Each structure stands twice: as C-alpha cells, then as structure tokens.
Amino acid sequence: MKRPFITLFSTAIVLLAATSCNSNDSVKEAQKTNEVKADSATANTEMGKVEKTGMDYDSEFLTKAASGGMLEVELGKQVVARAITPQAKEFAQQMVDDHSKGNAELMALATKKNITLPTTLGDDHQKVLKEVTEEKGVKMDQKYLKEMLEDHEEDVKEYTDASIKAADPDIKAFAAKTVPMLKMHLDMVTKMKPAVDAAK
C-alpha cells in the first residue's frame, strides 16, 4: 500500500524540479527561438552573416519592447486600482490606453516578420512590477513614477536607436512612429513627479 504514495511523491518532486528549471527569462527564451529562425533563414555566406546581424538586432529590439509594453499595461492597471494621488492614477491610465494600442501594433508587426515575442514579462520587468506593487499608499505612487521616469528615458533612447539602426524598414518605421508617444509620456511623468514626491 505504501508504493503508490512513494510513486506519487516521486512524481511530485520531478514535476517541481521541471517547473523550477523552466523559470527562464521569457525575453531571452524568445530571443533564442528567433536566433534559431535566423540561422535557418540565412545562408552561411558573408551576405547571410550581415542579414543575420540585422535580424538579431531587430528581434532583440522587438522582444524587449514587447516585455516593456506588457509591463506598462499590467503595472498601469494595478496602479489605477490602488493609486492615492490623482497624478499617478492619471498617468497609469494613460499607460494602459496608449501601450495597449502600441502592444497590438507590435504583435501584428512581429507576426508579419515571423518574430517570436515573449508571452510573459521578462525578469527585469517582473522585478519592477513586484517592487512597485509591494509598496502601499503614496509610497507606491512615488515608486511608480520614479520607475516610469527611468523607464521612459530608456525607452526613448532604445526606440530612437531602433528608428536608425533597425535592418527591416517596417520595424524602423514602427520605432520612429512610437518615439513621439514615448517622449510625451516622459514629459508627462517629469511634470507630475514633483507633486507626487511632495504628497504625504
């Protein structure tokens, strides 16, 4: 009678081990998938190597952008529901509205270009989500705007770079089209942050 229990227990341990092994960064996993696609799509010639380098840059940009866009929406929804200050609530709602549209465009573009995107937040973005949502009250609002300021400074730079460096003209155009929205968000959070920082 003890044998089935031992078998079940062993199975549970194996499943737990498998689950813990699978907790890889979703952005890196998507990038690995795209590397395999790029390898099979380009011949191993000098021209093929140039094409692959361009494809690598484009797919890395889109995979990171996808995770970042998901963070803006997911975190925005949580802050809208819990924010104390009107500024944090307003900014969070803007993030949900604008980045939901941007994410849909990005997904359509990636599908068209046969680029695999992460379906969950990458490790870095997961960490930001956790750190902000662990705070309570005004401290959460302040932490949120601090993270959004840093995030949008980085986004403006990365999207501007992609609008110049991307190999694919459609990806280049998508990046260029998104830069003004990101700059508007950066301007918005820069103006709102002092009032939220002063809140008690």
Automatic annotation (TrEMBL):
Keywords: Signal. It comes from the Bacteria. Pfam families: DUF4142. The keyword Signal applies. Residues 58-191 form the DUF4142 domain. Residues 1-23 form the signal peptide. InterPro entries: DUF4142 (IPR025419), Ferritin-like (IPR012347). Transmembrane segments: none annotated. This is DUF4142 domain-containing protein. It comes from Hymenobacter monticola. The lineage of its organism: Bacteria, Pseudomonadati, Bacteroidota, Cytophagia, Cytophagales.
